[in-house]
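Entry 14. Structure prediction run on the chain below.
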Amino acid sequence: MKETVALESRLYEQVAAHVEALVQHGALRPGDRVPSLRVLRRQHGVSLATVVRAYRELEARGVIEARPQSGFFARSRPPVAREPAPPRESVASLPASVDALVGRLYDMIRDPNCVPLGAAVPAPSILPMERLNATLAGIARTAGARGATYDSSSGPLTLRRQLAKRATSWGCALGADDFVTTLGATEAMALAIRATTKPGDVVAVESPTYFGFLELLESQGLRALEIPVVPGRGFDVDALGRALAREKVAAVIATPNFHNPTGVCMPDEDKARLVSLLAQKNIPLIEDDVYGDLAFDGGRPRPAKAFDRDGNVLLCGSVSKTLAAGYRVGWIAPGRFEKAVLRAKRANTMEGALLPQLAVAEFFATGAYDRHLRVLRRKLGVQLGRLRAAVSLHFPRGTRMSAPEGGLVLWVELPRGFDTRALYAEAARRRISIAPGVLFANKPRFTRFLRLNGGTPWSDTLEAAVRALGRACLRAT
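Output returned:
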C-alpha cells in the first residue's frame, strides 16, 4: 500500500513538472489553454485522478487557473521580486522596548472575524487536532492519579526521551537529561534569558527580530544590540564580531532556521562560525528553533546547537508552530546553564501541564508527528507561494519580499514613501490583520516593511485581502 501511494505521488509530480515547464519555457503563454485532463492522461499513461491532482497542485501554485466550463489556462507570472536589503548596522545598544502596536496586534490575532495575515501561526484546519485531542483523551483516561500530581521540574521523562531521539535527526548528540520541558518556546526563551543575564546587560538580537523577544528583554530590564539579518545568509556573523569589539554583550539571541520575520535559513558554515565566535568569548547563544521542522523541501536543517561542543548554546523549541500552540508544549536544551534554568523554572512555573506533554510524546513515538509534518510542509510551501504571487500582483511596483524556503511568514518591503503603520490602521478598519515592520525593531526602523502570515490555506478571502492591502498602500503613503 505504501509503495502504491509513493508511486502515485511521483507520477502526479512528474505530470505537474511537465506542464509547469511548458509555461516557464514559453511553450504555453499567459492565457493559453493547457492540455486537457484526458490528453495528459493518455500522454503520460496515468490515471485521471493523477492528472486532476497535478492540476490542482499547479493551480495552488498559481501556474494555471481554472475557468468555469472552459478548462485550465496558463496564468501570467509576475516578475520575481527582489529580496529586501539588509538594515544598516547599529552603533550602540539601547534599552529594549517594543512598539505599543503589539498589544493591538494580539487583539486582532484573537479575533475570528479578522483575515489572519498578522500572526505567525498555522491555521487549525491544517493541523491534526482531532487525532491529537483523541490521543490526549486516551491518556487522560489511563493516567489515573498521575495527572493530579507534580512531575519532575525537568518535565516528564517520556517526552524528554522522545526529544532526545528526535535530536539525532537534528545532528545533536543529546540525551533525555539534557532537556527541560517548558510552557511553549516563550517560557524556554524567558528561562534562557534569565539564566544568562542580569538587569542592565546587553543582549545582541537580529535585525529585524521577533517582537516577542523584545518584550522579554524589556520585561527583564535589558538592553538590545541589533545585528543585521542578510538575505540568503541570515544572522550577520561578521557584523556581530565588529559589535562585540565595541560593546560588552552578555548573550546573543538568534533564529538560524527560517528566521522570523524574513524566513531565511543560515548556511551551516555560518552557524558553525557563530557558535565558534561566541564560544571563544564565553558568550551564550540562545537559539530559537521553533521553525526548524518546517522546511518546504522536507529536509531538516541542523540547528546551531549541532555545532556546540562546550554547552554554550541554549536550544529552545516547541510544537506551537507545527502541531498545537494551545497545548503549550516546549523545551530547552540548556547546556552548561541547566542548573540556572531549572532554578528559574521552579521560581516561575514549577512545571508544565503533564497530560498535554504526554500526548505530544505519544504523537512523537507513534510516528504520527512525522506523517503530519510531511503534509504540513508541502501545504505551507504552496500557501507561501500563493501569497508571494498575490503580493507581486497586487502591491505597488518596486515592492520587495523575502523568498523563504521554510517557516510560515513573508517579509515585505514597500517602496520609499510608504508607511506600514498607516497601512496597518487601514487594514484594521477592513478587519485584516497584518504585522507592521516597526514591531520588529528596537528603535524606529522598518517603517515601510510588514510581515504576512502564510499559515492559512489559500482562498478567495485571502486573495481579496491582499488585493485590498495593495490598494490601501496607495492611501497609506
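The two ends are 57 Å apart (CA to CA).
Filed with the rest of this week's runs.
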